[in-house]
Each structure stands twice: as C-alpha cells, then as structure tokens.
Amino acid sequence: MTDPEVNEKRAIRADVRQRRQAQGAIGASQAGEGISLQIQELLTQTDARRVACYLSSEFEPNTRHFLKWALEHEVDVLLPITRDDGLLDWTLSDGVSERTHQWGFPEAVGEILGPIAINRVDLLLVPAAAVAHDGTRLGWGRGFYDKTLGSMEQRPPIWAIVHDDEFVPSLPSEIHDMPVDGVITPTRVIPLPLTEDH
C-alpha cells in the first residue's frame, strides 16, 4: 500500500473518531437503540440464535442495548478477548463482566472458549470505522478481526456496525482487509455488495 493510501486511512479514522466523540452520550445511546432494533430485525430474517458481537467503547456504535436485549431473549452472544498473537479468544456474554484493556477499550471477562468458538456462530457482528458499498471494511488498524477472519475455514456471515454517514461509496483497502457481507446502521440493514440498481 502506498503512503498516500496509508495516510488516507489514518485521516478517515481520525475524522470518524472526532465525529463520534462529538455525538455525545445521548446521541450515542439513541443510535444504540436503533442499532439494537436493526440487529433484532437481522436475527429475525436469518433465524440466528448464536452470534458474536463486541463490547462498544465510548467512540464506537453502541452495542450495549443489543447485548441487554439478547440476554433477556436467550440469544447467545460471544464477545472477543484479545490475544498476544493477534487472534481473538471468545467468551459467552453475561451482560455484566468486563474490564478495561491496557489499550483503553472495554473487554469481556469470562470463561475462555478459544478462537475456534467463532466457528459455531450464525452471525458475526464486527466494529468498523467505515464500510464501503463493495463490502470493504476499514477497521482501527490493529488487525484483530482481519487475522481472525482470515484464519477461519468456514466464515459465518460478517456484518459491520457503523453510523449511517460511515457507509460510503469507496474506501482504500489492502490485500489482508477482509470484506463484510453486510452493514448495520441505526436505521438500516444492508446486504453487500450493493448491486447497480441500489
């Protein structure tokens, strides 16, 4: 990847982070309620009962409303735990147990199920800074999800969660960037890639 492309990724991430922080707690909570409803709709469409998700930090689209709903409706949710080798372990969400990772983001605490637990979910819901119409996902640069997805023999459908203005026509990408099968925003569930008639 050329330096201009690397710089473009950094600039997009910085812009997204700034806009998300400007949203404030009330705006983030309202967006989270919409995201929860959209995920519920996706689960209804796909009949999914076991999903992987993430604990949202203050600058990520809020997944807390969905995690609460899932616990109340007996939907199993696996949450990631970072590993030193760049892959992700997983644990079953209990709705309460978490800690602050050394890098500052929230991380689940619980019985470690190992990296292959992800092979037994119906859907994988992942964070992103932005998603393009062709399915290109821009993460935050640490590569946990790209490495995890790249190591899977059979991937479940991958859905990225972003705000509406973070679903964009195109994004820079590298060979290791794993595309997603759809995007969830506070107002829409969108299968990807988009066809020409959309």
Automatic annotation (TrEMBL):
UniProt-listed Enzyme Commission number(s): 6.3.3.2
The keyword Ligase is annotated on this UniProt entry: yes
Catalytic activity entry: (6S)-5-formyl-5,6,7,8-tetrahydrofolate + ATP = (6R)-5,10-methenyltetrahydrofolate + ADP + phosphate
Molecular-function annotations in GO: 5-formyltetrahydrofolate cyclo-ligase activity
Listed transmembrane segments: none
Cofactors that this protein relies on: Mg(2+)
Pfam families documented for this protein: 5-FTHF_cyc-lig (PF01812)
Keyword Metal-binding among UniProt keywords: yes
Keywords: ATP-binding, Ligase, Magnesium, Metal-binding, Nucleotide-binding
Family, as annotated: Belongs to the 5-formyltetrahydrofolate cyclo-ligase family.
NCBIfam families from the UniProt entry: MTHFS_bact
Protein name: 5-formyltetrahydrofolate cyclo-ligase
Organism name: Pseudoclavibacter albus
